[in-house]
Amino acid sequence: MRFEDVSIYLITNLLRTIVNQQLISNFFEESEQKKGNHLAAGIIFFLITSMGHMLFGCLEVNIFTNLIGLFLLSAIYKGSIRKKLLITTLTYCLNMACDIVVMISFSGYGITESAIQAYGIITVLLISVCEKLIEKMILTKKGWEYHIPHLKLLILIPVCSIFIMHYLVRSSLIDRHTVILEGAGILMINMISFYLYSAIEYTFKDNLEKEITIQTYNTYANQLDVIMRSQEQIRTLQHDLKYHIRELASMAEKNHIDEMLLYLNKMNQLTCNPDEFVYSGNEKIDGNLNYLLKKAKSCLKDVSANVRIPMDFGDRSFEINVIISNLLDNAITAAEKSEDKRLKLEMIFDKSVLHISIKNSYDGKLISKDGRLLSTKEQAELHGYGLKNVKRIIKKYNGTISISYTDSLFSVDVMLYI
Predict the structure, then answer these.
(1) What's the confidence (pLDDT) of residue 173?
(2) Residue 30: burial class (beta carbons within 10 Å; 0-12, 13-18, 19+)
(3) 356/33 Cα distance (integer angstroms)
């Protein structure tokens, strides 16, 4: 093999390794990946497929090395052998199908030997397009709504590259060396684009996880503060209880009923914690609600809450908190922009049905597209996923969500069958 042939093949195979790794990862959860093996598996795949092609250059060896390499890429994930073999076979079939499509697209044009290098380039670009489409479908099916936007724009890069390569090869003015140089440049552009996209996606997910961690920390810190203040108030009342009893007894002997009621009201106020808006006994949900309602109280004029739920929802508490957090956060943001600044929450559990009702005032401005309400927050491309996550959880429990609004009032009603 000539030097330029080897160079273009190695660059092409490197990009194909990256694309196949990403393709296989779509079928596994990130938590299933064995640490430290991702890079090693990619290097092994690249080496055995490259060496098999350059040393032997026959179809049988290429099929064998590719199947072994793809299986190694799937082997770094936890799962059954049957699943890994199935994903290996499907991935290889996709690679082969893309190769066949490219060969057919050039048939009948009398292409010169410059097409030999172009075949591999266009094939790997076509595989990358298929991978991104599959990634989008799988993420949508799994409900991973945090996925970074503008994936469609990324797909345009390899699509445009394919058209450019087709034009170069079919043009009688382009010689073999030009095709090699142009193809290598196009491959490098695609590799850099995919790398930057992966880096941005990782940063995006990492920031989301940090935001969730910070909010969780604030929620627990707020609830701990509520508990500590309540206990301090109770201890204060207990310490002075004998004096209060003596004073009440004196009022009772004198039949001063009005003074007794006033005195008891003051004692009741002493036991009340202004930051404890709800108390159902369900610590996880109470903590989240108290944190959000405290936030609402600081910026709104009228905040009311009526919560009647069991002390324990089991593992469902996390998903219920996801619904509450998204809906209340959107409601608080909208109410803060309105003149009335009102928020009302009702959360009632009755006969295995959880009803969540949130009503808030808003400024009357809504953004909709194709019948869907869009986020009005800043950096809207990074927001707007909350309601999708809410709908995903509601669908899991065969529940319903109803959204209604007037010129000044926005209402959301959720029913969960638990």
Answers:
(1) 47
(2) exposed
(3) 38
For residues 158, 163, 168, 170, the Cα torsion angle rounded to the nearest 10 degrees is: 140
Residue of 308, 255, 247 lying closest to 282 (CA atoms): 308
Task: Report the alpha-carbon distance of residue 17 to residue 203 in Å, rounded.
Answer: 23
Residue 10 phi, psi dihedral angles, 5° rounding: -65, -40
CA-based nearest residue to 63, from 33, 93, 24: 93
Task: Provide CB contacts within 8 A for 319, sequence distance 6+.
Answer: 393, 396
Residue with tokens 């040393």: 55
Percent of the chain with pLDDT over 70: 73
> Is 364 strand, coil or helix?
coil
Q: What pLDDT was estimated at residue 300?
A: 92
> Which residues are bridge partners to 359 per DSSP?
344, 411
**Among the listed ranges 31-45, 118-132, 280-294, which one has the minimum average pLDDT value?**
31-45
Task: Report phi then psi at 302, rounded to 5.
Answer: -130, 110
Q: What is the DSSP letter of 6?
A: H
